[in-house]
Design brief:
The structure is a homodimer. The first copy, chain A, is of the alpha+beta class. The first copy, chain A, has helices spanning about 20-40, 50-55, 60-65, 80-85, 90-95, 105-115, 160-175, 190-200, 205-215, 215-230, 235-245, 250-260, 265-285, 350-355, 380-395, 405-415, 425-430, 450-455; strands at about 40-45, 50, 70, 100, 125-135, 145-155, 180-190, 290-295, 305-315, 320-325, 340-345, 370-375, 400, 420-425, 435-440, 445-450. The first copy, chain A, has 2 domains: about 20-360, Bira Bifunctional Protein, Domain 2 (BirA Bifunctional Protein, domain 2); about 365-455, Rossmann fold (3-Layer(aba) Sandwich), CATH 3.40.50.800. Helix content of chain A is about 40%, strand content about 20%. In chain A, a hairpin with a 5-residue loop joins strand 15 (about 435-440) and strand 16. The radius of gyration of chain A is 28 Å and the shape is globular.
C-alpha cells in the first residue's frame, strides 16, 4: 500500500455484501421471492431517486429530516436566494438546490406507481418489491443508512382472502427458512378502536394506541401512568387492562370481546373480520398454530384500518421480522382516493441476524463453487479444461485454477474459497481416467470417473 | 383524481420497471447470473453511496461532473464559506456541503472493496456485481440517469485462461438468450501499440486510438484527416490503414501481422496472447465461430493493457452489448499496486432492447401467474381455496380471484394479467371433480382432475 494515499472507507452506516453474506442473503430473498410468486405477486422496481415533491410530507417531520437529498447537477447556486445563503438557512436553501431524494421506503414509490399507471394496471394488483431504501438516521447496531425492504401488497380489493394468504405466505417462508418457533400476531384496528370506546377514550384514541404500543418495553405501570397523564380516567384504564390482560385461547378472547364490544360497531367489525380471516385460513388448509390473536398489537396506528400483523421469532435478540396490515387510502396522498389494500414486509437484515443466531442457514449457503480442478502442469491443466467444460455443461459450478502453481497453493485456495470438492489431476488420472475427488468438508477422498462425478452432482 | 394535487412524476431519465418488464429483465439477469456462477464467479454488492473522495478523479473531469452528489444531512451550511456562497461558486461549495455521491460505475466500488478487504480475499478473486449506477447525463433515447451494470472480473491472476473463459461465458449467455447472430470482437492493447510503432506515432498513441475508435462512425476519410491534424505523417497513416484494412481469416491476420510487427515487442506480445487465448478456447471445446480478430477495436484505450473484447449483436439498432478487457492496475487509484485482472460487462438495457427487436424473449416471460381459479359463489370459492393450496404446494403460481364477482370480470382479469390457465369452478365441478382448464393463449378448453392439472404443470 502506498500510504501517501488515504485509505478508502465506506460511508457511515453502509455495508458491502461480500460473497459469503450474499449467499446467505440470496438464500433468504430467493425463498421469499418464490413464495410471493407462487401466490401470484409480480415484481416491481422503482428508481432510487424520487422527486422530493413525491417524498416530502409523507413520513412526518422526523421522516422528512431523514431523507437523503441529491444536489441538483450543474450550477445549482445560480438561482439560489442570497438571503437564504447569508442566513445559513440550510433547510430553506435545500429546497432550492435539491429537487430529488433517495427513496425512504417502498410504500410511497408504490403509491406513486399506482397513481401514474392507474389506467394500465389490472386490479386487484399484487406486487412485490425488494429494493434498498436510505435513511439519514444515526447509525447503530442493527440500524443502517442503506438497507433492503421487501414488501408485498395487494391493492384494489377488500377481500379478506388477502389477509389469510398473508398468513399462509409467512408460514411458508418460515418453513423454507427452517424457522419453527415464531408467532404471527394478529389484531384489528376496529378492536383497538373498540377498546378506546370501551374506555371512553375516543378523543384520545391515538394516545391510547401509542401507549399500548409501548407495553412490551416499559411495562403496565408506566403505561397506566402515561394514560392518566393523557387524560384517560381510572375507570377507563381498568377497562383497557381488563381486556389487554385477558388470557386465553383465540376462541376465549373472541367470546370475551363479544360481550365487551356489545355496543361497539367498530369492535364488532374487528371481531367479525378476524374470525373470517381465521376461517379462510382453515379453508386453505393452513395452520393457525403460529397465529396469536394479540389484543395489544397496535403497530403504526393511524395508517392501518383493518387487520394488523406482526411476526416475532421467539427466543432471538431482535425477533420482530415482519409486519403489515390493511389500509384504506394508499394513494390518497397523491389525490387518488379509494384504493384499499393490504400489505406486509419482511425485514431482511433482521431475518439474516435471526438465522445466524439460530444457526439455521443450510450448509449450501456456506459453500461457493462446487468443483475445483487442480493440476500439475500444462498437460494436466489441458485435461482439466475439457473436464470443466463438461461439468459446466451440466450446470455444475466449476473452476480450473488459472495459474500453473504448486498443488499446495491450489488446495489452500479451494479451502479458503470454501469449494465443495477438489479434483487433483495428475499424470495417472490422465491415463486411467479415474479421478480422485476430495470432499473439502470432511477430507474424505473417493475415486471415480468424470462421468460418475457428473452423475453424482448434476 | 383530486387535481388540486400535483400529479406525481418520475425524475428525468429514470424508469419504473413494472411486472412485464421485470419478467423480461429477470430472464436476462438470471441467465447471466447462472453462467457467472457456473464459472465460479461469486456475487458482490456495494452501497449506492460512496464517499466523494472515493469517486472523484476516477472518471476524468467530465465524469466528475456527472456524479450525483448527496447533500450532507442536518445543518449543512453551518461550516460553509461565506465567500463561496457570495460568489455563487457551486463547484467549490459542493465539496463543502456534500461528502457522498452515488456510484458512477461498478469498477471503482469493486477496486475500493478489494483494497479494503485485501487481507481477507482469496485470490484469484472472481466476483460479479449486478447493480444500478447513476449518471447526471442528459437523458436521451436509450440513455438513462439510472441504469444497471452487470460486471464480472477476475483479479489476482494474469492467466489467459480467464480471457478464454470470458469468451466461453459470452457464448453461453447468448445461447441461453436465443441470440445466434453476434460477433465477439477481440483485439489486444499490444497490437494497438504495435500499430502506433509501425506508424511512428508512439508519441501520439492515444490520439491514434481515439481516431481508430471512431472508424465505424465517421469513416476512413475523416479518420485520415484527423490523424494528419494530430501530427501523424502520411506514410504512417498509410501503414495504419494497410493493417486496419487487411481482410482475411484470423490466421491470415496473424501471419500478416507477424511480418508487420517483426520489430515490435509489444505487437509480438499481443499476437502471442491472442493466439494463446484462441488455443485455450479450443482446449475448452469452445467455439471460435463468433470470434473476430478485429484490429480496429480500441475501446477505452488507456485503461486496458492486454486483450480487449466487444460483443455486437448483428442486424439490430444498438448492437454493442458487452465489452471488457485486461487491466494491470485496478487498485492503483487507492494506493495498492500490482493487481492485474480481466473483466467484462453486459449492458442490460441494450440486451433488453435487442431481444425485443429480435422478438427473442421466450413466451414464458410474457405470462404471469400460471393458474387463476375463478368461482361463482362462496361454495365454489371455498373449493378453490383448497385447490389453490394444493397447486401452490407443488410450486405452481396460483391465484384465487379474491372477490365474489361475475365470472366475466374474473376472466377479463385473467386475460389482462396474462395468466396462463384459467379454471372456472362451478357447481358441476364441485360434484364431479372434473375441472375445465382454459388455455388463455389459445382459448382451448380441456377437462381434467386437479391431480391431472398438477401432474401437467408441476
Amino acid at each position: 500500500m502506498d500510504f501517501s494515499m488515504e485509505k478508502p472507507t465506506l460511508p457511515k452506516g453502509t455495508r458491502d455484501f461480500g460473497p459469503a453474506q450474499m449467499a446467505k442473503r440470496q438464500f433468504i430473498l430467493n425463498h421469499i421471492r418464490q413464495v410471493f410468486q407462487t401466490y401470484g405477486f409480480l415484481p416491481l422496481e422503482t428508481p432510487a431517486m424520487e422527486n422530493l415533491s413525491t417524498l416530502t410530507g409523507k413520513y412526518g417531520e422526523e421522516g422528512d429530516q431523514l431523507l437523503f437529498k441529491i444536489l441538483n447537477s450543474g450550477d445549482f447556486l445560480k438561482e439560489a436566494d442570497t438571503t437564504l445563503m447569508g442566513n445559513r438557512d440550510s433547510k430553506s436553501l435545500a429546497s432550492v438546490i435539491s429537487e430529488k431524494g433517495l427513496r425512504y421506503d417502498l410504500t410511497v414509490p408504490f403509491a406513486r406507481y399506482v397513481v401514474m399507471n392507474r389506467h394500465d394496471i389490472t386490479f386487484p394488483f399484487k406486487r412485490y418489491q425488494i429494493q434498498p431504501v436510505w435513511r439519514a438516521d444515526r447509525p447503530q447496531k442493527g440500524r443502517y443508512r442503506e438497507f433492503y425492504q421487501c414488501d408485498a401488497d395487494v391493492v384494489g380489493t377488500d377481500s379478506l382472502l388477502c389477509e389469510a394468504e398473508i398468513i399462509l405466505m409467512i408460514t411458508e417462508v418460515f418453513q423454507r427458512l427452517n424457522i419453527a418457533d415464531y408467532t404471527i400476531k394478529l389484531n384489528h384496528r376496529g378492536i383497538l378502536t373498540g377498546l378506546a370506546e370501551v374506555a371512553h377514550a375516543q378523543a384520545n384514541e391515538s394516545s391510547l394506541f401509542v401507549a399500548i404500543d409501548k407495553l412490551d418495553k416499559i411495562g403496565e405501570d408506566k403505561v397506566r401512568d402515561e394514560l392518566l397523564t393523557r387524560g384517560i380516567d381510572r375507570e377507563g384504564i381498568e377497562r383497557v387492562f381488563s381486556v389487554l390482560n385477558f388470557k386465553g385461547t383465540t376462541a376465549d378472547k373472541q367470546s370475551f370481546l363479544q360481550t365487551q364490544f356489545a355496543a361497539s360497531p367498530n369492535g364488532q367489525k374487528g371481531l367479525r373480520e378476524v374470525a373470517e380471516v381465521l376461517m379462510l385460513l382453515q379453508r386453505y388448509g393452513g395452520t393457525a398454530e403460529h397465529v396469536e390473536f394479540d389484543l395489544a398489537l397496535a403497530r403504526g396506528l393511524s395508517y392501518y384500518t383493518g387487520c394488523i400483523f406482526e411476526v416475532k421469532i421467539n427466543h432471538v435478540a431482535i425477533g420482530s421480522v415482519s409486519g403489515g396490515g390493511r389500509y384504506d387510502n394508499l394513494t390518497g396522498m397523491f389525490g387518488m382516493p379509494g384504493v384499499s389494500g393490504v400489505g406486509f414486509s419482511f425485514g431482511v437484515d433482521r431475518l439474516y441476524d435471526a438465522l445466524e443466531e439460530l444457526a439455521a442457514f443450510p450448509q449450501e449457503t456456506t459453500r461457493s463453487t462446487t468443483v475445483l480442478l487442480a493440476h500439475f502442469d500444462e498437460a494436466t491443466r489441458t485435461f482439466a479444461l475439457g473436464a470443466a467444460a463438461r461439468l459446466r455443461a451440466r450446470g455444475i459450478a466449476t473452476e480450473v485454477y488459472p495459474d500453473l502453481v504448486k498443488i499446495k497453493k491450489q488446495l489452500e485456495f479451494a479451502d479458503k474459497k470454501k469449494v465443495r470438492f477438489t479434483v487433483v489431476i495428475g499424470a495417472d488420472e490422465l491415463t486411467s481416467g479415474q479421478l480422485t475427488v476430495k470432499t473439502m468438508e470432511t477430507g474424505e477422498q473417493q475415486k471415480m470417473t468424470l462421468e460418475e462425478l457428473i452423475q453424482r452432482l448434476g
